[in-house]
Structures are given as C-alpha cells and as structure tokens.
Amino acid sequence: MKTILVTGGAGFIGSAFVRHMVTTYPELTIVTYDKLTYAGNLDNLLPIKDAPNHAFVRGDIADHEAVRETFQRYSVDTVVNFAAESHVDRSILDPDAFIRTDVIGVYVLLEEARRHGIGRFVQVSTDEVYGDVREGFSVETDPFMPNSPYAASKASGELMVRSYHVTYGIDTVVTRGSNTYGPYQYPEKLIPFFATEALDGRPLPVYGDGQQVRDWLHVDDHARGVAHALLHGKSGEAYNIAGEALRVNLEVTRLLLSILGKDESLIKFVPDRPGHDRRYAMNCDKLKALGWERRYDFEDGLRATLTWYQENEWWWRKIKTGEYLEYYRRQYAERLAAGQDVSS
Fold first, then answer.
1. Is residue 89 among the annotated active site residues?
2. Which of 41, 104, 154, 316 has the smallest count of CB within 10 Å of its CB?
3. Is residue 135 part of a domain?
C-alpha cells in the first residue's frame, strides 16, 4: 500500500479520514478525489493544505475518463470510497443524483480498480441499509431492508462491491457507519443544522413526535474505524462502525439547546418525512475484535462539536446561502407553517 485514492475526501467523513491518514501515515500518499458538489468543501482540508504526502483532484466518480486518468497519474493501488449523495431528505426530493453517484459511480470505481489490479477497495456505507430495527442490534450478516432512495442506493453499491469480490477476486472491505457528528459537517444533518439554527434563534423543525432513535458516532472515531478496517479487515467482509450511543432525537435536541444556553421554545414539531425509519442500532463486536475502539463519549463529543460550530462561524455562514436556502425552503417552509410549538 503506497498510494490511496480517497473519493469524496472533501466531504464530512471523508475529510476526517484524509486528515487522519495524512498525519498518521506520512509514508503514504493520499490522493483526495472529490466533485466538490454542495457538501464537498476544500476548507475541510485546510489543516493539511501544506502536507507533502497529499494531493487533490477535482472529479466525478461516475466519469470513466477522469477516474482512469487519476488512477494512472498517481499509480493508485488502494481505493477508499466515501463519495456519495448521503442525505435522506434530498434523496426523497431528487433520487436521480443518488443513483448516479451511489450506484453508477461505485461501478465505475470498481471497473477501474479491476483494470489496474489494485490491492484493496474499501466501500464506506451506512447503517441505513438495514432499515428500521425496532429491537435488538443489526449484525453484518443481516439482510438489507432499505426504506429510502438513499438507503437503497447505498445497498445497491454494496451489492456491486460484493459482486466484484466474488466474480473478479477484488480485495474488498465494506464499512457501515452509524449516525455521525462532529466538526465540518454540512449543516443539513440534525446536529449541525439545529446547532446553527439555534445560534441564530431560529425554530428547530423536529420530525413527527421526535421519538426516532439514532446511534451517534463521532466523526474521528468513524474515520479511525474505516482506517482500521482498511488495514486489518478480512477480504470480502463487512464491518459495522457503531457509536453505541442510542439517543432519541428529541433528547438530543434538548441536550443541544441546553449546552448552547437556548430555550426549548425553539423546538417545533413538524409533519414527518415519508418512510422515516424509527430506530437504527448496530452491533460492532466484529470490528472491536480487530482492535478498534471509540475515544469519544457522546455527551463530551457533542459539547466539543457545538463549541467548534460556535468558534467557526466563518465556515458555516458562507454555506448557508444560495443553494442551501433554496433547499431549506423546499424542505421546511410548508412543514414549519403546519408545525406545532413544543408547548402545544
């Protein structure tokens, strides 16, 4: 392993992985490949902008020629694919983009990986492929039951990866992460969205009754989990990366407001989104058996994350303009108009 191509490496989790690999393994060359769509952000890579073992290429993973040229130029021998459309709400509004990136893009990467005889291909996936887990904990051999276009596109990409392992013998590993939070997260996901809205005193649209359960994983723990699977995972296997911090969404919202010193009157219950899974929960004993362990407690990690958003308004304020505001209008305007205050 000498040169790792990290696709989607300017995104939230991908950039955390890139920062970790560049600083922890200076003997490796890390090539970040990112289309820089709305959630890809070169500011996420500022901490390593002068690193001699890092290079950036702007490109689309669904573009055969661009991918092939990058493989050849950098003599890529390893691929870690974070590139994905990854927001459930956006997948409901525009599923086409998810199929292009999460399915066709994975196929293009696998084809080039096969042609170039790479050493290992890591596909970064999600706990949402398991669907709604009303009780117990998902294990890696459980069937896929995706309930949104996003989850279905990620499951499809995983199946493509499995087929290339079985049919062509490519050395593949899949990771499935739980809900991830931390610095540099595009402010459309629950924690950065609610944090930045609360800092401006704006209402927080809580879907349905707010009793959905999610498992929270700090982005640095997620990045190290992917790195651990890359270095120590068994070929052809999948590994859950779980935060083991199950929390009800409304509980997280109230804790967030308390940490920020904001009143719960900002909470507004709005009509739920279609196909909203009630609970996600994974068992991650398989990855732990390889030696991975978390470093962040959820409450401490949340406090540190909220402090980061308070101290880095320069990063998120320039994001919450233009396209972001149009998405916000499409997704929340009618819901907020029909919503109820927390005291109602």
1. no
2. 104
3. yes
